[in-house]
Amino acid sequence: MPILSENDYAFDLILQAAKDGAAAALGAPRLTPGLKLETRIVYGEEIGFMVRLLEIFAGPGGAYSQFIYGDYLMGKKFLEEGVPYAILLIGATTSPSPLAWDCGACGYPTCAEFNHSVNESKSAGMFGYGPSCNWLMMDFGIAMAQASAAIYAKNVDSRQQGSYGVAGLLLGMLPGMDVVLANSVGPMSRGVFQEWYSRPDMKGSFSMDKIYDMLISTFAFHFGGFSGDGIPMIKTKDDWFWEPFKAGKGPMPEATEILQQVLEQAGEVTLEYEQWQQAQNHGEEGAT
């Protein structure tokens, strides 16, 4: 009589949990009729390209982001050890607005003015393309929450992650989407540590001084930007985003140069991924 070990059945459970999460996101209740939502489930070799992008995003030894460095270390470990996991990508188009509600939450007095701005100046930001309609973003958040709940119901570890979402966006896995977030699905829990939250492989990666600096930097967000890299921008003036002033560091003129380097390195991985896809498709055509 056959006996199945955890490794024998884990991936089937993980893949089913990811599918349930995708279905929950697509069928989530919404506040508006205008959100376009798409999902993809990524596993196997293609996750390797995403992990390589995380390494670039994090910087050498986590110099740019301690948090993304943790995501990179865990993903790299799982791939090297053959531990099964999947990435559920969920993307949405958050502009233009189809609502005509003129609520002003986006910063523009009317939806028409917002849509004019979208047509004139839609561009890439830190985690996607904007500007975004707040109502559509709320619907996107509801869809992400529904997906997480569905995965949790399968007793499979998961975490919503912007790092893998941006990687999927740059790799063109969800073309046409303005914003993409990810749910890491799996691995199956292996004890005390929840891998994506505790990030046990980060232990010893940073000195206590660097950890203290990060904790001081992550102050309340009322006058600071999102602290996803552990060093939030301080909103010292109206155009605070374009001339970064970093908490605990002051002006950072080198920030633009670092960003350019990251984008160039990410572009190389993206090009390699496209070539890999073409080779895969060519192989399938040859087989038929």
Description of the structure:
- This protein is α+β, with helices and mostly antiparallel strands.
- It has a domain at 7-205: NADH Oxidase.
- The chain is 48% helix and 12% strand.
- The protein is built from 9 helices and 8 strands.
- The protein has helices at 6-26, 45-58, 66-81, 111-121, 134-152, 162-170, 195-198, 208-217, 254-287, and strands at residues 36-42, 86-93, 123-124, 129-130, 158-161, 179-185, 245-246, 250-251.
- The strands form 3 sheets. The chain has a 4-stranded antiparallel beta sheet with strand order 1-2-6-5, sandwiched between helices.
- A hairpin with a 4-residue loop joins strand 3 and strand 4.
- Helix 1 (6-26) runs antiparallel to helix 5, helix 2 (45-58) runs antiparallel to helix 3 and helix 2 (45-58) packs antiparallel against helix 9 (254-287).
- The longest helix is centred in the last third of the chain and has 34 residues, at 254-287.
- It is globular.
- 36% of the residues are buried.
Please tag this protein with its features:
288 residues; alpha+beta; NADH Oxidase; four-stranded antiparallel sheet; two-stranded antiparallel sheet; 8 strands; 48% helix; 12% strand; globular
